[in-house]
Amino acid sequence: MSxxxxxxxxxxxxxxxxFLITLIILLTALLSLxxxxxxxxxxNLSHRFQAPSSAHWLGTDQYGRDILSRVMKGAINSIIxxxxxxxxxxxxxxxxxxxxxxxxxxxxxSIMRISDVLYGFPAVLSAILITSILGPGxxxxxxxxxxxxxxxxxxxxxxxxxSIWERDYVTSAKAIGRSNAGIIWRHVLPxxxxxxxxxxxxxxxxxILAEAGLSYLGLGTQPPHAxxxxxxxxxxxxxxTSAWLxxxxxxxxxxxxxxxxxxxxxxxxxxxxxxxxxxxxx
Length: 282
Fold this sequence. Notes:
about 75% helix, disordered C terminus
C-alpha cells in the first residue's frame, strides 16, 4: 500500500473506529487463552447473582460464575467460529466462482442456480437447518455458517472475475501459452482480492451474529463452555432482577458486529477506486 493510500486510510473514521473495536476484541480473545480473572466454568453458589463490583467487575451469574471471565472466553469462541466459517466460505466460494467465470455456459448456470438456492435462506435459518441435521455443537455451527458463506463468495468472485478475463493482459497471457490456472493465480485473483477482503470482514460479523443466534437456540456452543449467545439465553429468565447477566454479553455481540462492519466499510472506501475518487472530489 502506498504512503498516500495509507494516509487516506487512517483519515477514514469508519476504518479507525472499526479497527480499534476489532483490535480490542482480538486482544481480549488472545488474553483469554492464558488468563481470565476466574475460571469461567467454575461454579460458586454462595456468590450467585452478585452485582458488578471490585471483586467481579461484571458481576456473577445464577451459578456464581464470573461474567467477565465468561465474556472473555466467549470472545475467543466467536473469533474462532468466524475465522473458520469465513475460511470455508472463501475457499469453496472462490473456487466455484472462478470456475463459473472461466467456463461460463452450463457450468456457470449450474453453479449460480445452486448458489441462488442457498443464498435464498438467511444465515441463521440455514445454520439451524444444517445443525438440526448434523446435531448441535460448535464444529457443526462453523460448518453450517461456512456453507452459507459459499454462495456469497462464489457470486462475488464470478462477478468480479468476468471483467478481468476480458482485459488485455489476460489476452496476452493466453497468447504466450500461460495455463488457465496460472492466469487465475497470477492475474485474476490479485485483482479481485480487495473485494474479497472487504466481503470477508462483513461476513465475519455475520458469522459472529449467527453463532450467537445458534448458541441462543441451543444449537451452537454447548454448556458449560462460554458463548455470548448462550449467556443471553441463560439470562432471559433473570432480566427483571439481574439485568447485567444479559447486558454485558449483548454489548459484546453488538460491539463485535459493529467493529467488523465498520472495518469492512472503511476498507471498502479505501480499496474501491470509484468511492475513493468521489470522496476526493467531495
